[in-house]
Write a structure and sequence with these properties.
It is a single chain. The protein has 539 residues and is mainly alpha-helical. The chain has helices at residues 3-12, 16-27, 56-76, 102-106, 126-140, 150-156, 160-168, 170-177, 183-188, 240-251, 263-275, 307-313, 316-324, 338-351, 357-360, 364-368, 391-401, 407-418, 425-442, 454-468, 475-486, 496-508, 516-523, 525-536, and strands at residues 42-48, 80-86, 146-149, 192-194, 208-211, 216-220, 226-230, 236-238, 258-259, 285-286, 289-290, 331-332. The strands form five sheets. Strands 1-2-3 form a three-stranded parallel beta sheet. The protein has a three-stranded antiparallel beta sheet with strand order 5-6-7, with no helix packed on it. The radius of gyration is 30 Å and the shape is elongated. It has three domains: 3-174 and 240-286, Rossmann fold, CATH 3.40.50; 289-368, no CATH class; 448-539, Arc Repressor Mutant, subunit A, CATH 1.10.10. The longest helix is centred in the first third of the chain and has 21 residues, at 56-76. It has 24 helices and twelve strands.
Length: 539
Amino acid sequence: MTDAILLEAAQNSKAWPFQEAHRLAKRLRDGKNSPSGEDAPAVFETGYGPSGLPHIGTFQEVLRTSLVRRAYEALTGQPTRLIAFSDDMDGLRKVPGNVPNQDVLATHIGKPLSRIPDPFEKYASFSAHNNAMLREFLDRFGFDYEFVSSSDRYNSGAFDEALRGVLANFDAILDIMLPTLGEERRRTYSPVMPISPTTGAVLQVPIEVVGANEGIIRFTDEDGRVVEQSALSGMAKCQWKVDWAMRWVALGVDYEMYGKDLTDSGVQSGKIARVLGGKKPEGLIYEMFLDANGEKISKSKGNGLSIEEWLQYGSEESLGFYIFANPKSAKQLHAGVIPKAIDDYWQFRERLPEQPLEKQLGNAVWHLLRANEHHEGPDAPGAGDKLGVPYSLLLNLGSARGREATPQNLAEYVASYTGEPVTDPALMALIESAVNYNRDFVAPTLAKRSPVDGEVEALKELDTRLAEAAADTSAEDLQTMVYEIGKVEAYGFESLRDWFRALYETLLGSEQGPRMGSFIKLYGVTPTRKLIAEALAKA
């Protein structure tokens, strides 16, 4: 595939990453020049608050930003950078409940996260620990990024020029911010927060700009003493919305997406960026995740699904696939969505090589295979692979075995079905995930009922036919056999749906189930007859 062919298809693609890329390309239509006059990379950014560990929200934001980045590269052929920015100059507001040595942290409330001891006693500071966890997290998923620390930028003086801009436009920034604040907050608000020379805390106090160009400010310290000191080189930090705008300008950020809960912050930071002589980046405002009841996920409630939990029951690719669709629509995030996400991902992945290019660009898998450093598109190893056994069918196998399901016995069923041992790591991982899901969500809910009325005779007839079936009977022929029994009027089924529901409820213990011909072929005729015998014994 030539770049020209890809470019032509990308120009017409309606996939949301390309739509976002189009907006950014329009913004940078005349190119982005570096000081040397050469084309400079378009800068993408994602933000991270290192008071906590990276989570599924971190994953989705970096993934979605990477999808737009790769679409922009395909659309324009221009270079890009992705900055993962850690706001580790932020002051510690409260002690997290999930860390050791909480009494030690309690003595450092208010201080920058980068100047607080690591409660895990592994790194030089609390933020250094969580920043390391962020990099390990992003590296685990193969993201291509540049890590930038707020404390490094402030302390080194790299933000000094931008800080001078904030001080020079102090009153204009106040005019933007004060109308958005409550009366009490207005009395203490300052766009720039000094670091106390006595306690090291980030102070929420009014300041007076003594000399903007020199970076000199005046304020009242915690001990009541009036202090005049520099705001440069790590002696002060901007308030969050001012900091966001200052960062956009200082780093030359062209694109950053954020959640719906930050919509107002984005508006105000955009105004401040203009005051500072810059421009608000392009970006998508995405909807938040919801729990199984449709309520907003909250860390305090613990009603969400962690990335570790998803990866216990599914794969990174299936999570990416689920996140890909409709970022502007709220998504429920709970274990119940995982099976369909896995099967849908593999269906789209199998379909990819056979699709014309314009269809490929609308296929989530095309984008996912380009999102990180590990893959380079639909011609990369793995694209178009077929597992042969859907996750939903593996779950049905697990439900048939109940609490006795193991990766080994499910792999044996699959080997019998396909005629060869399971050697594909992706399939084995899927089998192990299905066993985990069955153990935690399926087996505890199984309740096989007794067959009644015509169901008894129908099951006897199915058992008889299975006993007579040849060992190599196809899944399709087995399906036809089941259909024919359900159509016999003497058994009293009003519809085939009633017959299949009876099979699911009596043999598998659930209201819904698989295509029975495929299930019998995979599970095996003899084990299926055993399930029938167990059901008839209850009649």
